[in-house]
Design brief:
Blueprint: H1 8-24, H2 29-64
């Protein structure tokens, strides 16, 4: 069964958690590397979602003209 993709809100919340862990110095080097990879994936997901919404809004506004 396929894993459900995170929502934008879930991804941002997880990014906040990761940043908090890093800022507090709670991570050893091995975990730091994993968290950075996870954060990179989440940032990409957020960018894609924002781009998609931006395109949908532009299209909707163009239809009003």
């Amino acid at each position: 069964m396929a894993k459900k993709e995170e929502t934008y809100k879930e991804a941002v919340e997880r990014l906040r958690q990761i940043v908090g862990e890093i800022e507090r110095g709670d991570l050893d080097v091995d975990l730091l590397s994993e968290r950075v990879k996870e954060a990179t994936r989440l940032i990409k997901l957020c960018k894609e979602k924002l781009y998609k919404v931006d395109e949908e809004v532009k299209k909707a506004l163009e239809e009003l003209d």
